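Exercise: predict the fold of this chain.
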Amino acid sequence: MSRVLLWAAALASITIAGCGGGSKGNVVVVSVAPQGGTLVVNQSVTLTAIVTGATDVSVIWSCTFTTTTTPTGTTTPVTSAAAPCTAAQGVLSNQLDTTVTFTAPATVPNPPPTISVTATSNADKKKTGSSIISLDSGIRATVNPPTATVATGANFQFTATLTTDQTPNDVTWLLVQATTTNPIAPTATSCSPGCGSIDANGLYTAPATVPTPPTVTVVATSKLDTTRFATGTVTVVQAGPIGFSNVAPPIAPQGALLQDIFLNATNLTSSGVGVTVGPYTIAPSQVKVIFSPSNSASSIGARVRLNADQLAVAGTFQVDISSTNPASPVTKVAGGNFNVTVVPEKPAVVASNPDSLPEDSQVLPGGPSMTIDGGFYGPPDALVVSAHLNGGTLPIVTDPNSSNVSTPRRLNVTLPNLNGLSGLYPVSVTNTNANPSTSYTNLAIVPDYANTNKPDATPALIPLPAGAAPSAIALDSVLGVAVVAETGTSAIQFVDLHTGTPVLLGSSIPTGSIPLSTPPGSVPTGVAIDESLHIAAVVNYADRSLWIFQIPVPPAAPSTTPIGKIDLSTLIPASAPATPPTAAPLPYAVGIDSLTHRGLVAFASTNVGFIINLDPTQPASICLPGQPPAAAPTYCPVASVTLNTGSNPQIALEPRVDLAYVTPGGAGNLSVVDLQHVAAQARVPIATATRTSNVVTVTTSTAHTLNPG
């Protein structure tokens, strides 16, 4: 390549000349990002075409699909010829010069297709790039129970559960005995009737004799998506008399979460057999038939897993086995133990939280709560223990609809008003029927030396609009004003906190360009405040924007018009992350350093964030290329930074050292960002760019020292 530098009186030009004579021109290369991935029903992905080697970077988008099937009785898959996509395979929308949106259908065809979205360069029609997309119905199958032991000639009921398919039993059933040439699959050859039979409802009937081998695989395949199937295993045994000789261990602890007991009962099966423990009928899912390691022809007994409800009452309970199969009568062996005694157990306490609270704690209605971890507490509807503090009984959360409902291993208790209490107090958990009966933990009540919490004070509740769903709050401690982001109403609310009683400053202010009438709205998820400039920056998640508002001096109402807006939608291309394919990452959190007037925006589930300038005195030249503000003040991104975030990142600032800490919020690592030391970037403004006979001339508006090599 030859290089020519052309200088004008006020402009500097860079001329890049192509090779002359018979040399080849630039090679056009087209790629599409993301390159591929998987979409579930109704999910969309924005694809971006990247064209190099041409000044015309526009493309033409197209969509084709293929299907791959394995013919019955074969193991070799066959792929169809490519065909144009229809609405059944998915649709392309928002087709622009370099981007397009692909949306998966509401129902995935059977068999699921493989989609190829292709970008063809307008500069060279022979050059293309593609993104390969697989469609996933979202269906997952489960067979219950996963294992069963069935006597010859007996019946056993299997059930299938499917996610995202509301039709009951929407499966086809198949019996398979796998071999190297007949692996377990929906297309496998059935072993019926030699291994038994199964009807359309999942009712299995064992053969009259034990097959070889005695194990049979039950396959349930989704009718909507035949690539989704689940399996269960049946062990067929010869029907014979059941000899019930013993139960071990003979005791079980009251209040436990579970307890396994072993029934020594030969020839026991899953079909036609019932187990009772006192008044409790044991569900088939609680019984696991057990075989000797050296003999699978007949069982040696079963493990019965008693649950918390069956362990809630102390006493001695008789264990019985019944059979409806005439070929398998039950005989109790004389001299055996057939009882289980549920004995009261001293409660166990291994941890509690919190371990301390301030005196006169002011909390929301319901009082402060405490969690006690341990065991032998009983189920929430039949607790066997009580909790006490300072001589008083503590209410235990037993509401099954509560997220804090107690369990046999965790007590959630409500503490009383701590007014006037200070010191270290024992918290006891007692089962009055046990000996010893009580275990202890401690709660430290810290004195309120400054008398900042007034006794019996009722906390001030700030009324927000119905459905506001507040997601974030930031405080201007200088003005005494808080800003609350409301995801439910796509708005923010200013609150005056400088008086004794918080009051709202004006009404909620819509933020973002997506109106609430277009669900989900702009969805503001983060807010931060510059306490020197008295401005609030609001991250609009769905709108992919950052809006800046002036904070009013109370009691003045705030302006409903933002003083600045930053478009965040173009900062990260849709190619990140590459797998699975998604639209461009969404901004979630923001933090501001009030000394440097720089902010940090963290995006959800990605590896990049952006430093934002909020200093109105800075020149537009500090902005990232292509990101200058439309008008003063200079609110713009100035640098990208590497982060590692999950779905809900959060940002905290360390004052006076210009450091921002980003928690991942679901995945990744804690990141530390230096807001002040931003790497200098060469920014030479371009005046014009032209191409003639494969020679590209770029003219800059200022002199430079760039080498165009």
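Check your answer against the key: Confidence is low (pLDDT under 50) at residues 1-24, 575-582.
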